[in-house]
Amino acid sequence: MVTKTFQRGDLIGHPFRDQGLLAQALTHRSAGAPHNERLEFLGDSIVNMLVAQALYQRWPKADEGALTRARASLVCEGALATIARTLKLGERLTMGPGEMKSGGHRRDSILADALEAVVAAIYLDAGFEACRAVVLPWFEASLQALPATGKPEKDPKTRLQEWLQARQKGLPVYELVSETGDDHAKLFRVRCSVADPAVTTEGEGTSRRLAEQQAAATAIERLDSK
Fold first, then answer.
1. CA dist., res. 8 & res. 16, Å (int)
2. Which of 23, 25, 47, 151 fits as disulfide partner to 121, beta carbons 3.0 to 4.6 Å?
């Protein structure tokens, strides 16, 4: 087991009364029990609640669809991993030697799970209001970057489909090109093919959905440049 030392609170912004909660939140399952999976389960719901409430208050006229898309963009794996890197959680994770050697402390999925576990640890340590006060500022820059109208940009796959339908063209076809890595650290490569106008792109991601979104985003760029 590879153990990382950490200081009280620091970049997380919460002085833990129960240091055991923080230690558990930063312990990957590869290091043995108690690890952070149960905390991650709880933290996932708390993060979704906090972000949903923030969006509900900021966009009083937005419909459910707009709110759902905005929340999804703010709490997706990549967005949470970015926050985790800002808080330097990867450097503080306790992991098994194999996971550490394979670069697990840099993997989006592990960082996102750790962030959610830390959120749950703060909640259990100090309650919901204290958790909100610490966690919401982590999302402030992303919230500020959203359109003020409550109409966030649609995801790349939806935009590509609408681009083609508006021109009465056939829909894109997504094909899994490769799937590599262990079960807990897979990397997917997907090909996106558009027949008319002819465009073929590829994308990579830690899930097939993310790989498809990346491929679609590249396809839109190429179609717009034609």
1. 7
2. 25
CA distances from 78 to 66, 154, 170, 202 (A): 20, 17, 30, 19
Backbone angles phi, psi at 175, to 5 degrees: -130, 130
CATH class of 156-225: alpha beta
List active site positions. 44, 116
Q: Are 203 and 211 in contact (CB under 8 A)?
A: yes
CATH classification of 10-145, choosing from 1.10.1520.10, 3.40.1360.10, 3.10.290.10, 2.60.120.280?
Answer: 1.10.1520.10
Tokens of 94: 């306790």
Q: What is the pLDDT of residues 127-161, one digit of tens each?
A: 999 999 999 999 998 888 887 666 656 788 988 99
With CA atoms as reference, report the closest residue to 80 among 138, 14, 141.
Answer: 138
User: With contact defined as beta carbons under 8 Å apart, do 26 and 20 qualify?
Assistant: no
- In this structure, the strands spanning 187-194 and 173-180 are antiparallel
- In angstroms and rounded to an integer, the radius of gyration of the C-alpha atoms of the chain is 20
Query: What band does 17 get if pLDDT is binned at 50, 70 and 90?
Result: very high
CA nearest neighbour of 128 among 224, 42, 32, 5: 42
Q: Are 171 and 164 in contact (CB under 8 A)?
A: yes
Please report, for the chain, the start and end positions of each structural domain, with discontinuous segments joined by +. Answer: 10-145, 156-225
Beta-carbon-side half-sphere exposure of residue 3 (alpha carbons within 13 Å): 4
